[in-house]
Write a structure and sequence with these properties.
Elements lengths: L1 E7 L2 E9 L3 E8 L6 H5 L20 H13 L3 E7 L2 E9 L1 H7 L1
Antiparallel strand pairs: 1-2, 2-3, 3-5, 4-5
């Protein structure tokens, strides 16, 4: 398990890589306010935008997470998002080549 911490706007962001027997997990964890329940239900749908009134509000989560989910799913992986006690985190997994070969 490797962990790297970055600091953006004085808030730490953790990037964690976990090596499992059949897959590798990548976790990005922030320490902000988290995501609303409404956003959690639609995280990976195209057009789910941030409702803030800032100038970049159309960027939100929009199409980016939908594209990520499509790419990861095409590679037989998974993508999920959730809140934790101190913010939000996204986790995606990708199978190891050996695991894919054994499925065939």
């Amino acid at each position: 398990r490797r962990q790297r911490q970055m600091c953006i706007r004085d808030r730490p962001i953790d990037f964690i890589v976990e090596d499992h027997p059949e897959h590798v997990s990548f976790i990005v964890r922030d320490y902000g306010k988290g995501l609303s329940e409404e956003k959690l239900q639609n995280l990976f749908e195209t057009g789910t935008y941030n409702n803030s009134r800032s100038s970049d509000s159309r960027k939100g989560m929009g199409i980016g997470l939908s594209i990520c989910k499509t790419i990861i799913t095409a590679h037989h992986g998974t993508l999920s998002g959730r809140n934790h006690a101190d913010g939000a985190e996204f986790c995606f997994t990708l199978p190891k080549a050996e695991a894919l070969a054994s499925e065939k």
